[in-house]
Amino acid sequence: MSDAITVRGLHKRYKNAVAVDGVDLRVHDGEVFALLGPNGAGKTTTVEILEGFRRRTSGEVSVLGVDPQHGDATWRSRVGVVLQSTGEFDDLTAREVVRHFAQYYPKADDPDAVLARVGLTDKQNDRTRVLSGGQKRRLDVALGIVGRPELLFLDEPTTGFDPEARREFWGLIRDLAAAGTTILLTTHYLDEAETLADRVGVLAGGRLIAVDTPDRLGDRGSGTATVGWLGPDGPRSERTDTPTAVVTRLAAQFGGEVPGLTITRPSLEDVYLRMIGAGE
Ligand SMILES: Nc1ncnc2c1ncn2[C@@H]1O[C@H](COP(=O)(O)OP(=O)(O)OP(=O)(O)O)[C@@H](O)[C@H]1O
């Protein structure tokens, strides 16, 4: 499997802070990779280095086979970027902005189709300054994908989206991934990572402390489960490493169907919070 992104020993030191402290990372071609981590963990710094917007202190970085510090116009046209902060386009309409950006790319998508994909067709003739926060964010996403990038960076893409817009956005990301686009996103939403990502990485204090599939992170799949059921005196539960054995015992005890049976394992949020040491 070839890699769209390879990072070895990445360090970034600002004047008063070490933001990235020795990160090794590979993102495979065609993969959706979610970078998680608390505020200040170094996600944006890492992503901006990969995008070529920020210089690293040390380490090796290759993005689509190129060191982003030396990425030329051709390389840039292969990479789509959705930054955390919204751009200001004064008095241009949403459609004008997308059409304008499309001109910079050799294989740009049809601007009207892109506006439709991000759900902005109804707002295409509104000036961007009157768009709501979520609509501006959709416009940011439109600008990130209008060049048909091979690799798309999304820094907290759905912050400010209403639940329906988030679902629509997830559909868009799935379509892009199905078409072969490699995607690296940062997010604070664990459900977003779980829904979209093939693999997640957890950054804390500038270090990548775990990388795995969402269902395996932190031994989620094999860790302790909780079996719940409705006993004669009310709800009961038992924590166990062998839930099948507990259910078999209960089934024998009840002579068949176990009332109110549930088996739960730690959620991605549970293991994530444990990993970053929240509340300790
Ligand atoms: N331009 C800068 N100058 C100095 N320090 C910075 C700069 N940008 C970021 N930092 C510091 O580097 C660390 C990592 O910041 P970064 O923005 O990469 O974190 P993050 O994981 O993206 O956080 P968030 O989830 O809040 O967006 C923080 O301690 C931050 O204060």
TrEMBL record:
This is ABC transporter ATP-binding protein. It holds the Pfam family ABC_tran. It is found in: Cell membrane. The lineage of its organism: Bacteria, Bacillati, Actinomycetota, Actinomycetes, Micromonosporales. It is a peripheral membrane protein. The keyword Kinase does not apply. Keywords: Antibiotic resistance, ATP-binding, Nucleotide-binding, Transport. It comes from Dactylosporangium roseum. SUPFAM superfamilies: P-loop containing nucleoside triphosphate hydrolases. GO terms for molecular function: ATP binding. SMART domains: AAA. It comes from the Bacteria. Residues 5-230 form the ABC transporter domain. Belongs to the ABC transporter superfamily.
